[in-house]
Amino acid sequence: MSRAFRNLAFAAAALLFFSAAQAQIVLKMNTLFHSGDAQAMERIVEKFNAEHSDVQIDLSQGQWADYYAQLYNAVIANDAPHIGIVHTTNLPQMQPALTPLENSPAGNLLAAAGIEGSNYISALWDAGAFEGERYLIPLDTHMFGLWYNKDVFAAAGLDPNVAPSTRAEFEAAANAIRDNTDAYAVHLAEDGLARKLARAWYYLYWGQNAELFDADFTTSTFNNDRGLAACEYLTGVVSNDWNIAAGDGFKQFTAGDLGMLVAGNWFYWTATEAGVNFGFAAMPTFFDTPKTWGNSHNLVIPKQPAGTPDEVYVAAAQAIKWINENSDIWGIYGGHIPAYNPARESADLLASDTWQVSLSTFAKMAEDGVLHYPITHPKAAELESVFNTNIELAYNGTLTCQAALTQATTEANRILKR
Amino acid sequence: MARGSTRRQLTGMLYVLPFAAVWLLFLVWPVIYGFYLSLWEWDPLRGSKFVALGNYQHLFTDPRFWNAFWNTIEFAVISIPLIVGFGLLFALLLHNRNFFGKDLVEASLFFPYLLNVSIISLIWAWLVDPDYGILLQGLKVLGWNAPPFLNHPLWVIPFIALATGWWLSGYRMVVFRAALKDIPASILESAEIDGASGWAKVWHIVLPLIKPSILFAVVLSALSSFSVLGQVLVMTEGGPGRASEVLALYLYRLGFHYFRMGEAAAVGFILFLLMLVVAIFAFRFLGFESEFERKRGSEKA
After folding, report:
1. Distance from C-alpha of A312 to C-alpha of A55, rounded to nearest angstrom
2. In the prediction, which pLDDT does A35 show?
3. Does a cis peptide bond (omega within 30 degrees of 0) precede residue A81?
4. How far is CA A185 from CA A41, A172, A272, A408, in A?
5. Which of residues 46-105 of B touch A (CB under 8 A)?
């Protein structure tokens, strides 16, 4: 009897040991999210970890500025996380560091995890492949829209429930705010950082059905009447006395001192917590067609060291699928538009204030093709720096618009030719 | 006798060994490896390519490099005198026996040095925030409609240098205070009896006697000024335009934003050479020894 009991105890201990060892696939996930986005992703991962006993996600977040360099170098050092985030426009730069999902060392991960492109916004899904290989699973799309202060509108004699949708209406509203209130009238670029000013110039330029470079990226194509018109409209914010050159739209709006602000969907929670009586509207048509700057976050599996077990790859792909299935949380708390169709149609998301106030309009903008991606090229970061610096110099009056565009053309062509 | 001398030398080398090992591993080796890296278009994932001095050649023909180079020189030329000058001025003022509230003032002047570069940068950026900055509002009240310093191409570097002077001069002050305390009171009393003015005492007696401390402060300030990054990154990100993009920031962007590690390493090596030249020049110009030690040495000879 005692021998049988001993054998049973040994077998039970062995079973426990092996099942415990089996349970512990820990997926390292590293993102560039911070503030509200980071908190929203934490909610999703906490839910994942609560619902899964066999796989756990170890999440680290918050490095925005150096994120891509860290991810790239982590792959070089054979220490990459199992799941990462990559913007759609960073795909050409990051592609060597990413696992091709249909052709991974563990086989076709999309098939293994049951990820189907038809479940995603098609434009976002299509943008996730590079040179015939799929690397990205879209998580969301995000973009700029028009936030306005209803109290400032009322004080200016405008209807607080009607936002401007045309250039004439926009300018009339801006002039009314300038003339009838103490508030700044307009800020077209969030906090006015150089890269935000460049984004404002981009959407004004794209709104004239124009592109920055030729199709093969051999030369720049923006030093023309349309580039000039976009720049002059942007600098008109200062020359029309709608705002000051170095103003920070985020600060002004949250302090209740700004009438209209062009900012991203992530601004929802900041505006809400600031207690501003605000409204939201789609981007007005400043020129020929309404366009806005936007991008997408995508889930990726960075290249793993040789010898990584197949089950780890599959677990990472399944975790990515699960995150997208629960990305209504990402919409509600992160303020982004989920790329996964069923999540975007979830009852919780549709009933949320985020959706009612702003996200539904953003989603409509995405469906209407208002979103335009920024530069998608291996040298995108360097090319963008050209626009950042020169548009900022035009905005603060150091350069004329024509001089800024000429200088930007020289610099951009130099980068493309190198 | 010879055996004892060798033994002493060996003992001395053993004492030096721990520091030498750390120094070689973390300072000398990175410099050598950085130079090696600068000879490559380094990208292990796409494939690295040996380009010899190609990265340097490209940098020397790149207007952006020269812009960053001259911005760095401008920052150093303004900030080094500010850091050392403020430190020396505060130390001399506090050396006065009759200075009221000396300890409190000394602690207040030293306090900024304890703060992190990000905090310093945020505080100064907030002071001149174009919308709500208290300094700009104050200057307006006083009758000067000052430009937004951090958004103005001409003002941006001097302003960051001023903030740096405020941040770092406290530590130099402490160094100078220690040196001033070492000056024998009898020398200054003799000078007073001979009728030397306050300025004459400082110029002809105090400064020559604290020369080693001045050298230390100048070299330390030069190294921190030529490698300035944190203040610029937090306060302006190199703007407006590229008006405050310094070499360290350009290096950071080349490496971490554009993934051009070879060129980033080349900028790093150029920066190293620049600082080496400045340090050698400072050592040559100021010398290692104070006037006191120099005279004592020449008397022995």
Report:
1. 9
2. 81
3. no
4. 35, 10, 20, 29
5. 46, 58, 64
